[in-house]
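Researcher: Structure prediction, please.
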Amino acid sequence: MARASLVRKLVGMFVDRILREVFPDETGAARLQQVGLFTLIFVLQETGEPVTAARLAEFTGQSVSQVQKQLKKLVTVGVIERKKALNRQGRGRAFHLAIKHTDKTKRLLKAMSKAAGARR
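Model: Predicted structure follows.
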């Protein structure tokens, strides 16, 4: 299976989990925001720089509180996790966001890694 196909499958697994979970009084726009935030976290995490709610707010033009509201739902669904870290100044605390993998997604990542190695 081609690497691009594996990436699509991996993202699809996460998006499916987001779309299956419906919160009370949730709008379609809120669900679309969750998919968008997840995708942004997925892409930004690959840069190696910390992904924070403040950084996501900068990218999206949303307020930090709007971003955090949707992030809480992504944490509840289990597609992202928050990890404590020092803030940029090294004095206070911040939360870095990361994709939360299941055994199934870990196996898919391993297959992607093997596919990438075979192409070299």
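Model: The chain is about 60% helix and 10% strand.
Researcher: Thanks, that helps.
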